[in-house]
Write a structure and sequence with these properties.
mainly alpha
C-alpha cells in the first residue's frame, strides 16, 4: 500500500509552512517607522502576547484533564490526536498573530511609498496566517493518517479525535478573544466617540491600545483557530467516513489530495496580488480569490482522473463534487459582501434609518441580518443536494452489500463530505484575506495615533475600509464551512454508533432517527437551548467587561483632565489589564457548558437524544451565526458610510455609532463563537459515542430520569 497521497499532502503542507516563514521574514524586514510608531506597534504586540499566554495557561489545564480522560476512557492514540489537534490550533493562532501585531506600523510606514506597497505588506502579513494555518492542518492530518493506518487496526477514532482537540481550543479562543476585542471596542467607543466626542483611534483614549490588541486576539488568532479546526475536522471526518463505509485507502486519501491541490493554488494566489489599473484593493483581492478557485477546480478535474485512471467517469464525478465546494466559497463571499458592504443597498438602507433614530437603525440592521442568511442557506443546500447525487453516481457500486438498501444513501453522503472538504480547502487564501483586515485596521490606527500627514491617512483609510469588508465576508465563509463540517460529523456520529451497536443494524438505527422519537425531539430542544444559553452568556460577558472598561476610561478622564488637553499620557496598560483579566474570567463557563451537556444528554436520553442535540444545534446555530455576523458588519459599515460622506458628529452619525456598538459583540463575539460551539458538540459526541452507548446498556434509558436536573444545571451555569 503506497500512501503516496498522504506523503504528498504532508510535503505540500510543509512547503506552505516554509513559504509562510519566508513571508514573515520579508514582512519583518520592512521599515517599522519612527519611534512613536514603533512604540504603538510594540504596545499592541505586547498586549496581545500577554493575553495569549494567560489564555493558553488556562486552556492547557482543561486540555490535560480531558487528555487523561480520553487516554484511559478511549485510547492513548486518541489522547495523542486530541493533544496534537489542540496544539495545532494554538500554534495557528499564535504564529499568525505574532506577525500581524508587528505588521501594522510597517504597513503604515509603507503607505508613504504608496498604496501598492502598503497593500503588499498587509497582504503578505495576512498570508503568513492563511498559509501556515492550512499547512499545519494538512501536514498533521496527513502524517497521523499515514501513521495510524500503518500501525492500528482501529484507526478512525484516534484520527477524528484531532478535530475534538482543535475545536475545543477554538471554542475558548473564540469566546475569550471575542469578549476581549468587543469589550475593549465597546468601552473605548462609548466614552471616546459618544461621550468625549473624540475620533476613533485617538491616542487620548485610554482604551485605544486595548481595542487594537483585541483586533488581533479576536479577529486574527480567533479566526485562525476557527478555520484551522473547521479544516482539520472536515478532512478527518471525510477520511473517517470513507474508512467506516469501507471504500478503501484510495478513497480515504482523496480528501487529503483535495486539500493539497487547493493549498498549491492558494500559494500561487498569494503571489498574484497586484493593485491593478483600477487602483481598487478590494477588486484585486476578490480577483485573486476567484483565480485561486478556478486553479483549484482545474487541478481537481485534471489530477484526480489522472491519478485514478481505472474509472474515468467515477473520477469525474468525484472531481465535480469536490469542485462544488470550492465554487461555493466565492459565492458565499459575494452574498456576504452584498449584505455588509456600504456599496450596496442593505447597508445604505440602515444608514438612511440613522436620520430617524438609533432604534430604527437597530431594527433595520437586525432585519437585514435575518434576510442575509437565506441566500447562504440556499447555496449550501444546493451544493449538498448536487454533491449527494454525484456521490451516489460515483461510489454506490463500491459500498459493501451489508448496508443493503441504504447503499445509495451512504454513497451520497460521501459526495457531500467531498464538497465540504472542497469548501474548506480554500482556507489558505480566505484567511489571508481575513487577516489582511486587522493589519490594515491597526495600520490606520497607528497613522491616527502617530499623527502622520493626511495623505498617508488617505491611503490607510482605503485599506482599512477594504479590510473591514474582507473581515465581514470571511466570517460568512467560516460560518458556512462550520455548518458543512458539522453535517459531515453528524453522519460520522451515526456510523460510529452503528459500529458499536452493529453495522448490520444500520437500517434499524437510521429508521429510529425520526421526529416521532421523543428522545430525538427532546435532544433537539436541548441543542437549541445550548445555542441560546451560549449566545446570551457571551453577550452578557461583553456587557459586563465593557462596563468595567467604561468606568476606568471615565475615571482617567475625570481624575486626569490633562489627557483630553494633550498634556498627559493615558494609562493604556491599566485598560489592557482589566480587559485581559475579565475576558479570561468570563470565557471558561460557556465552554464548560458545551463540554458537559452532550455527555449528560447521551447518558440521560441515549444516542438518539445525542443525535437530536447535534441536529438542533446545527439547524439553529448556523443561521443564527449568519444573522449575528452579518447584522453586526452591516451596522459597522452603515456608520462608516455616514463618516465617508461627511456625516461625522451629526445626529445620524451618533445613531449609527449606537447601532455599531450593538453590532460589535454580534459580529465578533457571539456569532463567530457559534462555529466552534457546533463542532465541539459534534466531535466530542463522536469521540465519546462508544463510552455513552456502553453506559446506556448498563443503566438503561429513561427519557425522564435526570432530565429536569440537566435543564436546571444548564440554566444555573
Amino acid at each position: 500500500m503506497s500512501y503516496i497521497i498522504s506523503i504528498v499532502g504532508a510535503v505540500v503542507g510543509l512547503v506552505a509552512i516554509l513559504y509562510s516563514i519566508y513571508l514573515a521574514r520579508w514582512v519583518l524586514r520592512q521599515d517599522p517607522g519612527d519611534e512613536k510608531m514603533r512604540f504603538i506597534s510594540e504596545s499592541i504586540a505586547l498586549g496581545a502576547k500577554a493575553y495569549m499566554y494567560r489564555q493558553y495557561k488556562t486552556i492547557i489545564i482543561i486540555l490535560l484533564i480531558l487528555g487523561v480522560i480520553i487516554f484511559f476512557g478511549i485510547s492513548p492514540w486518541a489522547s495523542l490526536s486530541f493533544i496534537l489537534g489542540a496544539l495545532g490550533s494554538m500554534a495557528a493562532g499564535y504564529l499568525g498573530m505574532y506577525v500581524t501585531t508587528r505588521s501594522a506600523s510597517r504597513a503604515a510606514e509603507g503607505a508613504k511609498k504608496g498604496a501598492e506597497h502598503s497593500l503588499r505588506i498587509a497582504w503578505r502579513a495576512g498570508a503568513v496566517m492563511g498559509l501556515s494555518l492550512a499547512g499545519v492542518a494538512l501536514s498533521i492530518l496527513s502524517i497521523l493518517y499515514l501513521f495510524y493506518h500503518t500501525i492500528l487496526a482501529e484507526w478512525m477514532i484516534p484520527l477524528i479525535s484531532i478535530g475534538f482537540g482543535a475545536s475545543l481550543v477554538t471554542l475558548f479562543m473564540r469566546v475569550g478573544g471575542g469578549i476581549y476585542t468587543k469589550a475593549a471596542d465597546l468601552g473605548a467607543d462609548l466614552v471616546g466617540k459618544i461621550e468625549a466626542g473624540i475620533p476613533e483611534d485617538d491616542p487620548r483614549n485610554p482604551g485605544v491600545i486595548a481595542d487594537n490588541v483585541g483586533d488581533n486576539v479576536g479577529d486574527v488568532a480567533g479566526m485562525a483557530s476557527d478555520v484551522f479546526e473547521s479544516y482539520i475536522v472536515t478532512l478527518s471526518a471525510a477520511v473517517f467516513l470513507a474508512g467506516v463505509i469501507g471504500l478503501g485507502t484510495i478513497f480515504e486519501e482523496i480528501p487529503i489530495l483535495i486539500g493539497a491541490l487547493s493549498l498549491v493554488a492558494s500559494i500561487a494566489g498569494v503571489m498574484m496580488l497586484r493593485l491593478g489599473r483600477r487602483k481598487d484593493p478590494l477588486s484585486s483581492i476578490k480577483r485573486v480569490i476567484d483565480i485561486v478557485a478556478i486553479i483549484s477546480v482545474v487541478l481537481m478535474l485534471v489530477v484526480i482522473p489522472l491519478i485514478y485512471r481505472d474509472n474515468f467517469i467515477r473520477s469525474l464525478y468525484i472531481s465535480i463534487a469536490s469542485s462544488l465546494g470550492i465554487i461555493l466559497a466565492p459565492i458565499i463571499l459575494r452574498v456576504t459582501e452584498y449584505y455588509t458592504s456600504y456599496q450596496y443597498k442593505p447597508v445604505r438602507d440602515i444608514a438612511d434609518q440613522a436620520k430617524i433614530s438609533a432604534a430604527t437603525v437597530i431594527v433595520t440592521g437586525y432585519a437585514k441580518g435575518l434576510l442575509s442568511s437565506i441566500p447562504v442557506l440556499i447555496a449550501v443546500g444546493g451544493v449538498l443536494g448536487l454533491s449527494y447525487y454525484l456521490g451516489m453516481l460515483a461510489v454506490s457500486d463500491l459500498v459493501p452489500t451489508s448496508f443493503g438498501a441504504y447503499g445509495g444513501l451512504i454513497a451520497g453522503v460521501y459526495g457531500t463530505a467531498l464538497a465540504s472538504v472542497g469548501l474548506l480547502a480554500a482556507a489558505g487564501i480566505i484567511i489571508t484575506a481575513d487577516s489582511f483586515g486587522p493589519v490594515s485596521d491597526n495600520a490606520n490606527g497607528v497613522v491616527e495615533m502617530a499623527g502622520l500627514p493626511e495623505n498617508i491617512r488617505e491611503v490607510t483609510d482605503v485599506l482599512d475600509a477594504v479590510g473591514n469588508t474582507t473581515k465581514a465576508t470571511t466570517k460568512g465563509y467560516a460560518i458556512a464551512s462550520a455548518g458543512l463540517a458539522a453535517l459531515v460529523l453528524f453522519i460520522a456520529l451515526i456510523f460510529e454508533i452503528s459500529k458499536f451497536i452493529g453495522l448490520e443494524k444500520l437500517p434499524e438505527i437510521l429508521s429510529s432517527i425520526t421526529l416521532v422519537n421523543p428522545n430525538l425531539l427532546i435532544g433537539a430542544f436541548v441543542g437549541i437551548m445550548i445555542v441560546y444559553i451560549f449566545s446570551g452568556r457571551t453577550l452578557e460577558a461583553v456587557g459586563r467587561t465593557a462596563m468595567e472598561i467604561v468606568e476606568e476610561i471615565r475615571r482617567q478622564f475625570r481624575e486626569r483632565p490633562g489627557i483630553l488637553e494633550w498634556k498627559e499620557k493615558p494609562d493604556y496598560a491599566r485598560v489592557v489589564d482589566i480587559t485581559t483579566r475579565r475576558a479570561l474570567e468570563e470565557f471558561v463557563k460557556p465552554g464548560l457548558i458545551v463540554i458537559i451537556t452532550p455527555i449528560l444528554v447521551g447518558i440521560v436520553l441515549g444516542w438518539q437524544g445525542l443525535a437530536g442535540l447535534i441536529l438542533g444545534s446545527i439547524i439553529v446555530g448556523m443561521p443564527r451565526a449568519l444573522l449575528m455576523a452579518n447584522a453586526g458588519a452591516a451596522w459597522d459599515n452603515a456608520k462608516k458610510y455616514i463618516e465617508h460622506h461627511g456625516g461625522k458628529k451629526t445626529e445620524a452619525h451618533k445613531a449609527a455609532v449606537i447601532g455599531d456598538t450593538v453590532g460589535d459583540p454580534f459580529k465578533d463575539t457571539t456569532g463567530p463563537s457559534l462555529n466552534p460551539l457546533i463542532k465541539v458538540l459534534n466531535t466530542l459526541s463522536v469521540v465519546f459515542a462508544g463510552a455513552i452507548i456502553t453506559l446506556n446498556k448498563l443503566m438503561g434509558i429513561n427519557i425522564y430520569t435526570g432530565l429536569l436536573p440537566l435543564i436546571k444545571l444548564l440554566l444555573t451555569l
